[in-house]
Amino acid sequence: MVDRGAELEIKPFDPATLFWIALLNPVVIVIAFLMGRRADQWQKLIVAAFAASLGGFILYWVVAEVGLLPVHALGGEAGIILMQFVFGLVWASLGYVLRR
């Protein structure tokens, strides 16, 4: 009988890497800023941040699938979505304030 447990290895994710990926994701920046500029009520900034977070995650997924960014562990995806939402809220707020 072969021990399959020795082949499987899930490495813990690196929070600093997730932080930088979320902070510097160009899709999050562009979508959040542009939607923030178009928002006519502050409540729409939350929608802009959520849309930017999902758009940024799609970019992250495509880059990982193509092989430009190797993904070695599970669990970082939820952290990236959450951090991209927070940074998206910041970028959308910046666009909202600069529009005025």
Description:
By secondary structure, this protein is an all-alpha fold. The protein has four helices and no strands.
Total helical segments: 4
What portion of the residues fall into strands of 2 or more residues? Answer: under 5%
Number of strands: 0
Provide the residue-averaged pLDDT. Answer: 85
Shape: elongated
Uncertain runs with pLDDT below 50, 5 residues or more? Answer: 5-10
- The secondary-structure class comes to mainly alpha
List its traits.
mainly alpha, 4 helices, 69% helix, elongated
Task: Give the topology.
Layout (H helix, E strand, L loop, with lengths): L14 H9 L2 H13 L5 H23 L9 H24 L1
Helix pairs in contact: 1-4, 2-3, 2-4, 3-4
What is the structure about, briefly put?
The protein is mainly alpha-helical and 100 residues long. 69% of the residues lie in helices and 0% in strands. Helix 2 runs antiparallel to helix 3 (44-66) and helix 3 packs across helix 4.
